[in-house]
Design a protein that fits this description.
Length: 213
């Protein structure tokens, strides 16, 4: 595997994240560091740092007996993540609507267009994160935006399920467009309602997928 990121740690984290989200490393699998270092073409030090980074993101769990393990989706964790996201994103949305400019709206429309051309689930996850990051960055609330970003990274294991479903991706895309329309109209109440509905619909759908698996 060719690794082209700026540092060995970033490269290893990027590659390992892709392997987990693509399913090439199944949920619940023990991650053997010697094997992974050879597979990714990195030494053990950057690999350990990459494992720590993905542990923070929730893609890896540290088991007392088995060591690093690819995370298994948890409904309890999912609900907690989305409860926090709803609080923070609704707040950021109201701040965003006060500050959004024409150029901001144009940038959000570009993000939606880029997202519609995503060729793989991983590309869609990145595009989805870019859309939401762009929208909340406009709020000029850097700490809130940072916390939203951490939660959205933590949710990547679950958003991956959405990214693999064409129907769910189409729903999310439509809801993104509605959010931008609310921004254009300056309707803070509608934007907050749309953010809540967007998060709750995703939560409900992913819950159903975890329950069936």
């Amino acid at each position: 595997m060719l690794l082209d990121r700026t540092t060995a740690t970033e490269a290893a984290a990027y590659a390992l994240r892709s392997l987990i989200l693509s399913g090439e490393i199944p949920a619940g699998s023990t991650l053997r560091q010697d094997d992974l270092a050879k597979r990714l073409g990195v030494s053990r030090t950057p690999l350990r740092e990459a494992l720590q980074r993905l542990t923070v993101e929730g893609l890896i769990r540290m088991d007392h007996h088995r060591g690093a393990v690819a995370a298994v989706p948890s409904i309890a964790e999912l609900r907690e993540i989305y409860e926090l996201q709803e609080i923070l994103e609704c707040h950021a949305g109201r701040e965003t609507i006060k500050r959004a400019t024409k150029s901001d709206i144009a940038e959000l429309c570009e993000r939606i267009e880029e997202l519609s051309h995503a060729q793989s689930p991983i590309e869609w996850i990145r595009g989805n994160l870019a859309f939401h990051s762009t929208m909340y960055r406009i709020s000029n609330k850097p700490l809130v935006v940072e916390m939203i970003g951490q939660l959205r990274n933590r949710a990547s294991l679950y958003i991956n399920m959405v990214a693999r479903s064409g129907e769910s991706r189409t729903r999310a895309q439509h809801e993104h467009g509605e959010m931008v329309e609310a921004l254009v109209a300056g309707d803070a109440d509608r934007l907050e309602s749309l953010i809540q509905a967007h998060l709750r619909a995703t939560l409900s759908w992913v819950e159903s997928q975890i329950s069936e698996s």
